């Protein structure tokens, strides 16, 4: 199921740097046919309401608008969520997602989740804007 969320649940005790270290390839988040630029995405490792490792994604304003339109147009449809060419999951959209926040919960182990978050981080040499 792909649905919006409020504030993230508990943050996991996974040590992830504030920026993507050199040598870690930049991951591009795509939902359906819409790709989000790295600067539009903030990713964090959290625990969902059931205590499972989950990926929290927050999009900037433009990304949130794109996500709202995409989900509004695809209620009842399956939309693959990918990082690069890797399908993370293919949930069914149950509602339009406004606000630009979503949680991706699945069968992540901590190492896999840490790797995903690192790939979605901005590069360390990126200036704060």
From TrEMBL:
InterPro entries recorded: SecDF_P1_head
Top-rank taxon, per record: Bacteria
- What Pfam families does its record include? SecDF_P1_head
Residues of the SecDF P1 head subdomain domain: 47-116
Q: Under what name is this protein listed?
A: SecDF P1 head subdomain domain-containing protein
Species name: Hyphomonas pacifica
């Amino acid at each position: 199921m792909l649905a919006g969320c409020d504030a993230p649940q508990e943050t996991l005790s996974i040590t992830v740097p504030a920026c993507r270290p050199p040598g870690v390839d930049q991951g591009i988040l795509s939902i359906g046919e819409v790709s989000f630029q790295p600067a539009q995405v903030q990713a964090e490792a959290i625990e969902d309401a059931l205590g499972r490792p989950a990926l929290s994604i927050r999009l900037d304003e433009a990304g949130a608008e794109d996500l709202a339109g995409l989900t509004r147009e695809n209620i009842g449809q399956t939309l693959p969520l990918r990082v690069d060419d890797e399908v993370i999951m293919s949930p069914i959209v149950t509602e339009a997602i406004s606000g630009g926040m979503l949680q991706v919960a699945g069968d992540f182990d901590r190492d896999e989740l840490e790797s995903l978050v690192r790939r979605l981080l901005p590069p360390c040499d990126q200036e704060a804007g």
